[in-house]
């Protein structure tokens, strides 16, 4: 049987600025929290050079056009536009993204731009980051400038990448742990910033569309024990629905509210927040999906822990509410992430059932240690297999009535992983460098490149 995707299905691939661009101080760029993040492992590379996409974007976009993409998801580095987060504008940064956008359009590739992907300006972080209200105001100023500058050509926007994962695995992504009261005040500010982005995009970009971009995956109970099911209810709310209920319904999820009460967290609202929350909504939901999570109810002997250390189930621990559980029914990749294509289908169905909005997958993919052969090939059959399994489930979800409008996996090109360096590769395009040696940063097409190219060309996937 062959799965045929809808005629207008959007085929894409995704990256973020700090994981690809490098040139971290070039042409007036300010420092972001990713540039200053303390590193616990110096055997892996930082983001200073990454894969030098900043200088090689023309070559990269030409390759993406050869791949056949009709959309390209990338993020803008806030610190190239406003080196200090707000105030003085850096024209070189504005020009750079104008060039990137025009280069995409030259090949008929529509940009899907993420306003911010984990790289808050350090200058704002120094003033308190997302814990203080003034960062929401700075974000408004930044979003407004982007919509005014690029909105004539860019019609599709994504707000803030994975605020849920950013707060859940703060130590790994931001390099510091955030106390629980502050964490959920940050939640409120991030979500309000997003509401302003919805409003501004709709006001400033003619025919503009915008969506949130959380990492969503269903949470399974470890067993049919009623208390395991309750643990799954809480973690589903804290990890998934709190964010999307705010974006799409304009309200705090009720289970999440109970969780906050039990943690003695009080959220400070500004005067207009209640009204803003209920007045501005997304046009679609963009969703990143890698794996599902399984939890159980902790027992006393599990001890106490304040946070969650990874998006992988086995590390999740929140005293009294849920504890990560290694799902014995799932295989793992070489970086210990479970693989669950059926979980993607269920997640898509659940999401669509809940919000009735079009969905686009803006991340999904396999991190692996690819090998470049002497004759310049990368035989990544394992990645093709992963993508094929997940896309089969996307096709099934569409057949089951889900309005899935596109698929933009992680990643277009090899990039530096959030905390596992360049050895963990996701791209369709291989970049020849390793952790210690940048070499020539030459680009090579992987076997998955040719596989995806054919899929895009035919719109069909044999199953
Ligand atoms: C997502 C992020 O959570 O996961 C990406 O949006 C990240 O920035 C991706 O690269 C894969 O995670 P990792 O840790 O393998 O880089």
TrEMBL record:
<dbReference type="InterPro" id="IPR018120">
    <property type="entry name" value="Glyco_hydro_1_AS"/>
</dbReference>
<dbReference type="InterPro" id="IPR033132">
    <property type="entry name" value="GH_1_N_CS"/>
</dbReference>
<keyword id="KW-0326">Glycosidase</keyword>
<feature type="active site" description="Nucleophile">
    <location>
        <position position="363"/>
    </location>
</feature>
<dbReference type="InterPro" id="IPR001360">
    <property type="entry name" value="Glyco_hydro_1"/>
</dbReference>
<dbReference type="InterPro" id="IPR017853">
    <property type="entry name" value="GH"/>
</dbReference>
<dbReference type="Pfam" id="PF00232">
    <property type="entry name" value="Glyco_hydro_1"/>
</dbReference>
<comment type="similarity">
    <text>Belongs to the glycosyl hydrolase 1 family.</text>
</comment>
<protein>
    <submittedName>
        <fullName>6-phospho-beta-glucosidase</fullName>
    </submittedName>
</protein>
<keyword id="KW-0378">Hydrolase</keyword>
């Amino acid at each position: 049987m062959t799965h045929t995707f809808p005629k207008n299905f959007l085929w894409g691939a995704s990256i973020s600025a700090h994981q690809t661009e490098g040139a971290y101080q070039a042409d007036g760029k300010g420092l972001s929290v990713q540039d200053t993040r303390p590193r616990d492992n110096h055997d892996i590379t930082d983001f200073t050079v990454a894969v030098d996409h900043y200088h090689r974007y023309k070559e990269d976009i030409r390759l993406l056009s050869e791949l056949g993409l009709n959309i390209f998801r990338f993020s803008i580095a806030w610190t190239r536009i406003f080196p200090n987060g707000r105030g003085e504008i850096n024209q070189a940064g504005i020009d750079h993204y104008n060039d990137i956008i025009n280069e995409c359009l030259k090949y008929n590739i529509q940009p899907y731009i993420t306003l911010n992907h984990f790289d808050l300006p350090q200058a704002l972080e120094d003033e308190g980051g997302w814990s203080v209200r003034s960062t929401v105001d700075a974000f408004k100023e930044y979003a407004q400038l982007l919509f005014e500058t690029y909105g004539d050509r860019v019609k599709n926007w994504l707000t803030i990448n994975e605020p849920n994962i950013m707060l859940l695995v703060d130590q790994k992504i931001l390099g510091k742990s955030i106390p629980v009261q502050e964490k959920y005040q940050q939640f409120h500010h991030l979500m309000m910033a997003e509401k302003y982005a919805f409003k501004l995009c709709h006001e400033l970009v003619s025919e503009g569309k915008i969506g949130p971009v959380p990492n969503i995956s269903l949470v399974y109970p470890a067993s049919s024990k009623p208390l395991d099911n309750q643990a799954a209810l809480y973690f589903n709310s804290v990890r998934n629905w709190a964010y999307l209920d705010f974006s799409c319904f304009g309200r705090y999820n009720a289970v999440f509210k109970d969780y906050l009460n039990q943690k003695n967290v009080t959220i400070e609202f500004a005067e207009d927040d209640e009204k803003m929350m209920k007045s501005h909504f997304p046009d679609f939901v963009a969703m990143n999906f890698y794996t599902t999570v399984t939890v159980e109810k902790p027992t006393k002997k599990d001890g106490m822990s304040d946070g969650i250390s990874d998006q992988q189930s086995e590390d999740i621990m929140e005293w009294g509410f849920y504890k990560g559980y290694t799902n014995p029914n799932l295989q793992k990749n070489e970086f210990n992430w479970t693989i669950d294509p059926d979980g993607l289908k269920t997640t898509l169905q659940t999401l669509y059932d809940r919000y009735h909005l079009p969905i686009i997958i803006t991340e999904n993919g396999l991190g692996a240690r690819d090998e470049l052969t002497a004759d310049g090939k990368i035989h990544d059959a394992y990645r093709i297999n992963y993508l094929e399994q997940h896309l089969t489930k996307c096709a099934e979800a569409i057949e089951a009535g889900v309005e899935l409008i596109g698929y933009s996996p992680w990643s277009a090109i090899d990039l530096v992983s959030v905390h596992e360096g360049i050895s963990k590769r996701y791209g369709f395009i291989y970049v020849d460098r390793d952790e210690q040696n940048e070499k020539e940063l030459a680009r090579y097409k992987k076997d998955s490149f040719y596989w995806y190219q054919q899929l895009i060309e035919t719109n069909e996937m044999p199953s």
